């Protein structure tokens, strides 16, 4: 049987120290203020994505709009779940989730889009998903073993963003008149 790296009595004693820090113990290895900042940037990204998908859902029109709009609505709901997970983690880390609408778009990695053309909506959503994929991949690598819980959250978000990108790519491939660049 493997032994603990630290004596169990020492772990118990450390757990009683700085009890006001909740889950943040001396074993936490990341830059906590920077992790909270990065999580808030990701929160802004997810909220902008929710707004973009919702706008696209409500303004989609044309012959193929119904199935595409349904995909937009599904993605909006999943992006909202991402935002909720990030906000909960920020609070758990002792931070405050930043929902300030005045600075939302400047903190977000992805951009808002007001396209009215269905193909352009899909393309812009795909670009935003690709931005999230690149950003979250970098965040996962940066977190490493310093904050495993936050890393796992970003890994989960990353997997779903990849699914979204795949869905949007498939929509573009199925729609007639979509540019095949």
UniProtKB/TrEMBL annotation:
<keyword id="KW-0409">Iron storage</keyword>
<feature type="domain" description="Ferritin-like diiron">
    <location>
        <begin position="29"/>
        <end position="179"/>
    </location>
</feature>
<comment type="subunit">
    <text>Homooligomer of 24 subunits, arranged as 12 dimers, that are packed together to form an approximately spherical molecule with a central cavity, in which large amounts of iron can be deposited.</text>
</comment>
<dbReference type="GO" id="GO:0004322">
    <property type="term" value="F:ferroxidase activity"/>
</dbReference>
<keyword id="KW-0560">Oxidoreductase</keyword>
<dbReference type="Pfam" id="PF00210">
    <property type="entry name" value="Ferritin"/>
</dbReference>
<dbReference type="InterPro" id="IPR014490">
    <property type="entry name" value="Dps-like"/>
</dbReference>
<dbReference type="InterPro" id="IPR009078">
    <property type="entry name" value="Ferritin-like_SF"/>
</dbReference>
<dbReference type="InterPro" id="IPR008331">
    <property type="entry name" value="Ferritin_DPS_dom"/>
</dbReference>
<dbReference type="InterPro" id="IPR012347">
    <property type="entry name" value="Ferritin-like"/>
</dbReference>
<dbReference type="InterPro" id="IPR009040">
    <property type="entry name" value="Ferritin-like_diiron"/>
</dbReference>
<dbReference type="InterPro" id="IPR002024">
    <property type="entry name" value="Bacterioferritin"/>
</dbReference>
<protein>
    <submittedName>
        <fullName>Bacterioferritin</fullName>
        <ecNumber>1.16.3.1</ecNumber>
    </submittedName>
</protein>
<keyword id="KW-0408">Iron</keyword>
